[in-house]
Amino acid sequence: MGLKAKRRVLLSGTPIQNDLLEYFSLIHFVNEDLLGSASEFKRKFENYILRGQDSTATDSERQRASECLKELTDIVNKCLIRRTSSLLTKYLPVKFEMIIVCQLTPIQRQIYLNYINSESIRSTVRDSEESTGSSFSSLASITNLKKLCNHPDLVLDKILEGAEGFEKSRHLLPPSGGDKDVRPELSGKLMLLDCFLANLKANYSDKIVLVSNYTQTLDLFERLCRKRGYMYVRLDGTMSIKKRAKVVDNFNNPESKEFIFMLSSKAGGCGLNLIGANRLIMFDPDWNPANDDQAMARVWRDGQQKPCYIYRFLAAGTIEEKIFQRQAHKKALSSTVVDMNEETARHFSVAELRDLFRLEETESDTHRRLKCKRCLNKIQIKAPPEEADCTDDLSQWHHCWDKKGLADMVLKQIWDMSKYISFVFHQRSAKQEVKVQKSFEEETEVLDKEEDPEYEDEDDNDSDYSG
């Protein structure tokens, strides 16, 4: 605010990442006092809008929130131009997004239960609730749970030491083969990844990007690649800017032999163009939905020629689903305030989102909390609206407990083999507009082939790839 300037312009793809105060700050910077002070904004708009967003809000509270929202948008629209990624669907290949919910392995589950039920962790949670404990200890506990969801080896030292929360878990892990050993069978998500990569490498020519928030997880990926003989490159915060460009250019070359690009979401979430790959796996979620969205956009970019497949792995009923639910809550807030989408569903109460230190026995805690009216007895009895795409609320996506209806052949083929998949949300980007009209003769030729009983499609997978 201390900068002296005649004109102020801000450009942001994520005007709201966490809360409405961020949005206020942007508007206040370009038009000081348009919304009053921060305290006035909170009192006049934020409190009412947040309360109306809560799934437990009354009709009168939602009505009041709607009135405040209209007043706010009328003011802000004087200085705001909004364009979303939906514009890209006209120019890019189709994109399929899948949120794959995986069960923990028996060993993971027992270590997880021992940790959240330990006295040290219970006291940490009590202290945090009473605001008398250390916020650092709560954060450390959350980090331990997040790493445990990826693989027990990420907290192996603490388990072997019998550190706080892990006192009863020392005997659970089988002996390790050393730092270079990798044990996919100890993690549901890593087992799924191992099956996925093996099938993709054996049967397809696609390249893939693996993204994680932790460099320790990238170390795990490296050990897996060396064990299976996969060619790979890795980009994290230790790589220089000059070297990054060279590595990216080489990976995007169709002639290069690198099958996997490993990416730290913090180091490479923005700016990278990895169109050499058309598949991307987000191995773990971040608290900030903008970080994940940026990382997942690395392959669906200008220049991409193939259909894109984006996968998000979540450990069922764990803190990962809670984090993902918090992301959904933040996105709903942004959709309501920034994009003026008043139909954004209110699925999660604030109280539910605070309930991090629990393990839910469920195929998907997120689907359970949606209170979905389209599914009955683990069957989707009503399809999403035809116009729905992967920018819509999760309630408008396809929901499945088995492989039927999946658009991705790779995931279909490994569903039974991986053992740990329990639920999948999946959706595709908006249908493309036809850019070049085929001639009548070309269209007739295609129809003639399809109608000819002797004509056989050489690729049985085409129907799956077309969605």
Q: Can you give a write-up of this model?
A:
This is DNA repair and recombination protein RAD54-like. One of its GO terms (cellular component) is nucleus. The protein has a domain at 95-103 and 182-428: Rossmann fold, CATH 3.40.50.300. It is globular and about 65 Å long. Helix content is 42%, strand content 10%. By secondary structure, it is of the alpha/beta class. The strands form two sheets. The protein has an eight-stranded mixed beta sheet with strand order 3-4-2-5-6-1-10-9, sandwiched between helices. It has a two-stranded antiparallel sheet with strand order 7-8.
Structural class estimated from helices and strands: alpha/beta
Low-confidence stretches: 132-136, 342-348, 433-467
Across the major sheet, the strand order is 3-4-2-5-6-1-10-9
Topology as a string of helices (H) and strands (E): HHHEHHHHHEHEHEHEHEHHHEEEHEHH
Q: Gyration radius, to the nearest Å?
A: 24 Å
Number of helices: 18
Beta-strand segment tally: 10
Envelope shape: globular
Distance between the termini: 50 Å
Mean pLDDT: 82
CATH fold type of the domain at 95-103 and 182-428: Rossmann fold
Strand content: 5-15%
